[in-house]
Design a protein that fits this description.
elongated, alpha/beta
C-alpha cells in the first residue's frame, strides 16, 4: 500500500468520456479548481497538458492521465524537498497557526530522525499557548528524544538560548524548535522570530537552518493566504502539509509550490507516528488523480 493511498482522491478522470476534446478539458479545469488548485495554476496545468497531448500525439485517456501526473509533479518542483541537516547541530524552526498539527508534526519528525540514528533535541519555544510545552513533552517521550523547556510565558528566545547551549554540550545532530502559533499581529511574529534567529546565529554561527510552515490541508485556499503571510513575515524554506487524508482538496499543495515557489517537504495522512513522510511529487500526483 502506497503512502498516499489514504488520500481522498480528486478522481479527476473518473467520470470523463474517452474523447480528449474541449469537454474533457473543461471538466478537467472544474475538477482541479474544486480540488483547491486555484484558478491561475489550474489554467496553466490544463494548457500544459493540451500542449503535451498535441506534441506527444496522445490519443487515450490513460495517456492523458500519465501526462497529467508529469505536469503536476513538475509544478510541485519548487526546490529541494529534503531537509538541510548538513551541520551538527542543524536547526529546524516550525511555524504555523494553532490547530494545524504543529506539535504533532515535530514529534513525528523527531521520531523519524531518531530512527535514522540522529541525536535529536526538542525546544519548546511556544511559551504562550497553555499546555504547548506539556504536549511537546509527551511527544518527546513517544519519540525517545530530549526536550528543553521553561515555564509558561517565558521569553521564547531564552528557551532557544538554553536549547542551543544544550545542543552544543550534548553534541546533538538536530534541534527542532516549536514556535508560537499566531498571526494576528505580523510585526510581533516577525520581531519574535528575528530575536530567535539572532540567538541561533550567535550561539550556532554557520549552522544549517530550515523554517518549515505547517499547514492544514483541509483549510484549502485559506492555507495559501496563511502561507503568503508567513512567507512575508518569516521567510520559509518549506511546507509541511498535514491532514491530507481528511480532504479531497490536496491540490493546495500544487498552488503553494507554484505561487510561492516554496517546496512541500513533508506530507501527513494520519495520526500515527509513521503517517508523516518526506514528500514525493510523482507519488502524490499519481495518488491525487
Amino acid at each position: 500500500m502506497g503512502f498516499f493511498d489514504k488520500l481522498k482522491r480528486i478522481n479527476i478522470f473518473a467520470s470523463f468520456g474517452s474523447e480528449l476534446n474541449d469537454d474533457f478539458y473543461d471538466e478537467l479545469e472544474e475538477s482541479l479548481i474544486l480540488a483547491d488548485t486555484g484558478m491561475d495554476v489550474t489554467l496553466e496545468l490544463v494548457e500544459t497538458l493540451r500542449r503535451r497531448v498535441k506534441e506527444e500525439r496522445i490519443k487515450t485517456l490513460e495517456g492523458a492521465r500519465e501526462a497529467m501526473c508529469r505536469c503536476i509533479a513538475e509544478a510541485l518542483n519548487a526546490g529541494e524537498t529534503a531537509l538541510d541537516l548538513s551541520t551538527r547541530p542543524a536547526v529546524v524552526l516550525f511555524i504555523g497557526v494553532n490547530g494545524v498539527g504543529k506539535t504533532t508534526t515535530i514529534g513525528k519528525i523527531a521520531y523519524q530522525l531518531r530512527r535514522e540514528r540522529k541525536k535529536v533535541l526538542l525546544c519548546a519555544a511556544d511559551t504562550f499557548r497553555a499546555a504547548a510545552a506539556e504536549q511537546l513533552t509527551i511527544w518527546s517521550e513517544r519519540a525517545g528524544v530530549d526536550i528543553i523547556k521553561q515555564h509558561e510565558g517565558a521569553d521564547p528566545a531564552a528557551v532557544v538560548f538554553d536549547a542551543m547551549s544544550a545542543a552544543k554540550a550534548r553534541r546533538s545532530d538536530v534541534v527542532l524548535v516549536d514556535t508560537a502559533g499566531r498571526l494576528h499581529n505580523k510585526q510581533n511574529l516577525m520581531n519574535e522570530l528575528n530575536k530567535i534567529s539572532r540567538v541561533i546565529d550567535r550561539e550556532l554561527p554557520g549552522s544549517s537552518r530550515e523554517t518549515l510552515l505547517v499547514l492544514d490541508a483541509t483549510t484549502g485556499q485559506n492555507g495559501l493566504v496563511q502561507a503568503k503571510q508567513f512567507k512575508e513575515a518569516a521567510g520559509i524554506t518549506g511546507i509541511v502539509l498535514t491532514k491530507l487524508d481528511g480532504t479531497a482538496k490536496g491540490g493546495i499543495a500544487i498552488a503553494i509550490a507554484k505561487e510561492l515557489g516554496v517546496p512541500v517537504k513533508y506530507a501527513g495522512v494520519g495520526e500515527g507516528l509513521d503517517d508523516l513522510k518526506p514528500f514525493d511529487a510523482m507519488e502524490f500526483a499519481q495518488a491525487l488523480i
